From TrEMBL:
Organism: Cuscuta europaea (European dodder)
Keyword annotations: Cytoplasm, Methyltransferase, rRNA processing, S-adenosyl-L-methionine, Transferase
Location in the cell: Cytoplasm
A Pfam family that the UniProt record links to this protein: Methyltrans_RNA
Signal peptide annotation: none
Main localization (coarse): cytoplasm
EC number of this enzyme: 2.1.1.193
GO cellular component, one term: cytoplasm
Protein name as it appears in the record: 16S rRNA (uracil(1498)-N(3))-methyltransferase
Location of the Ribosomal RNA small subunit methyltransferase E PUA-like domain: 63-101
SUPFAM superfamilies membership: alpha/beta knot, PUA domain-like
A molecular function GO annotation: rRNA (uridine-N3-)-methyltransferase activity
InterPro entries: Alpha/beta_knot_MTases, PUA-like_sf, RsmE, RsmE_MTase_dom, RsmE_PUA-like, tRNA_m1G_MTases_N
Amino acid sequence: MQVRVRSISLAFLLNRTCSKESTFRAISSSPSPSNYSTQARGGLPRFYSEILPSSKGSVVRVKGDEFWHMTRVLRLTIHDRVELFNGKGNLVEGCIQDIDQSGLNFVALENPKLVSPLETQWHVFAAFGTLKGGRADWLVEKCTELGAHSITPLLTERSSSLSENRVERLLRVSFAASKQCQRLHEMSFNPPIKVAQLLPHRQCRFLVP
């Protein structure tokens, strides 16, 4: 059985439902030093954006579903400070400049900074058979929280099909987990492959439960 699913990035997933100008998701982090007052004890709200402001003073437009989430759910307003990250380690602090009926403008209060991944002796590449129900969601969530570099669904003789909608759901699960653990680097989601295609990686060491 063959299932054709192309590699899907987080940005591709979010662009299916949001404007191409900018897409965001909420996350919280520790506040950074600034002359602006901290909005909450937990730190600044953080949002995902495929495109970040290029420098201090640059403006990014927020529209669509996440505009609604920021203003109606989190009830953010003008001059509220927030952070934007792009899932690749880049982070910028800024504030809401103005709001209208169709969106809001975010202005950078500092130049974007790059946060490098923590150095580690091991890079974990997780692979799993296509699971039914919520078991796959749980596995993807834990792999994200534990810092796996990538995850690969395995196709077996009796494995269930993995549709593009299912892949998108697992990507959303991974992103939600990233928000919970404040992960700045997104976990890659590889296309499904057969076990025989995985085994030739001789430099890999396999951990089997």
